[in-house]
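Q: I'm writing a short methods note and want an example of a predicted protein-small molecule complex. Could you take the sequence and the SMILES for zinc ion and return the bound structure as tokens? Please keep the output block clean; save any remarks for afterwards.
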Amino acid sequence: MEWKIGKGNRDCVACNKGFSEEEEYYSAIFDEQGGFIRKDFCIPCWSNPKSEVFFSFWKTKVPKQGKHAQKFLNTDVLLDMVSKLEGSMEAHQRNLRYVLVLYLIRKKVFKFKSLSREEGGEHLVIYFPREDREFKVYNPSLKVEEIESITAEMNQLLNYPYLEHEATS
Ligand SMILES: [Zn+2]
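A: Understood, no commentary inside the block.
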């Protein structure tokens, strides 16, 4: 799987304006050439889109100076991605969906019910209490290392890598 994350993307990709302390902005994920990339937009540019089609997005905020970046993993963003990846036959998207679902099981958003063997491979049967429904996820039979690496990449894509990096340096 390929994830591309702009280096030090502390500014708007559209107008290059730097974000200031506590400024709100939008992060959006785009599916480009088989890989996901994240782009950040200032509010004026976001409200004036240039025909780009995003995969998923969320609103966020530059933290106050000296404060740690909030550990960002908005469940709704993940749920949105899980639902948009449904039915995708592309390997990297299937793998991602599986890893997202595992994460949401750990977070007790989903409940694992059973395994189902069917044509096309093994699926996990998942229960989603919030919507009182079941759905299936293709099991790509990833190795532990593959799951870890996809999880790490997902965190990087959805978190604020540059801020966390600053906090530790
Ligand atoms: Zn802008």
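A: Remarks, as requested: Helices lie at 43-46, 75-84, 91-106, 144-158, 161-168. Residues 1-8, 160-169 have pLDDT under 50 and may be disordered.
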